Amino acid sequence: MTLRIGHIEIDAPFAQAALSGYSDLPMRRIARRLGAPYALNEVILDKTVNQRGKKRKQILRVTEDDHPVGGQLMGADPNDFGPAAAAMADAGYDVIDINFGCPVRKVLGRCRGGFLLSQPDVALEIVRRVYDAVGATKPVTVKMRRGMDDSAESERDFFAILDGVFEIGAAAVTVHGRSVRQRYVGPSDWKFLKRVKRHVGDGIVFGSGDLFSAEACMRMMAESGVDGVTIARGCIGNPWIFAECRALLAGSPLPPPPSVAEQGRVIAEHYAESTNVHGPRLAGRLMRKFGIKYSEHHPDARSVRDAFIAVTTPDEVQNVLDRWYDPQADWPPAIRRAGHGDLIAAGAEM
User: Fold this and answer.
1) Does residue 60 belong to any structural domain of this protein?
2) Co-location of 186 and 314 in the same domain
3) What is the pTM of this model?
4) What are phi and psi of 284, to 5 degrees?
5) How far apart are alpha carbons 324 and 176 in whole angstroms?
6) Average pLDDT over residues 76-81
């Protein structure tokens, strides 16, 4: 089941979301190897792209094995978006995505992210600037929430932006079924996603929100009619969700949860990738937070989580792998990660 984002074709209707502090190159590589057809880099401030420096060089480094990849921009001033989008397109990003969905308070306070859902004119001027800069060669997409809040005015603003986005020429939108004010509290409104898809007709819509299992991904598409899903917090420490989605999409049974040996293999691979990209010191710190999420699959999840929390050096990461993921040990059956209560505060999708 292929899906097109402009001229970019992906062979399955799901994507790894832009996840602040998480969706770096190592995470994207692991996700792709386990079935993700498309992934987005973590959100980038337009001003950072436009300013020379080490951070800009890191942002504009796109490797040959990281395609198709979306670069997500966030900011407040329409004047900054066009140059930033052009730089990212020139660097090799396949899709330029615009963030109108981040609900983090400090982002809203700087008139970025989800705040722009309350400013339709500014939001659409941003989309226009990006499309004018790169739309002839790169698909432009937009990430939204269902509005600032539950008011009628917020809903009118949402649909004004939605209609304008497609009129300008955007290739797709991703809609998270929570409001900005709701943040991550309460359920994602999949019925609203159904309204959105009916409203835009042939326009490509990705749904987001409460996608913590392959079954949920399939159910969202079936219940709402969205063209695809963007998996956010549900794939942190759970790259196997992409292979599970592919299995269900093909009509095959859900694969068994990853064995302890398989978990250890993937974590070690992720750690090696992180070391190569970030260096051993930073990789050790990053793998602490990734390891906490990976631990949820382990049959002794609490002990493994505590072990990762205690990690302070690269050697200690390896010690956790040696002790808790020994492929020769007689482990109880692995568990499939269920629920999402522990994920609410982490890995905010941008």
Assistant:
1) yes
2) no
3) 0.93
4) -60, -40
5) 36
6) 96
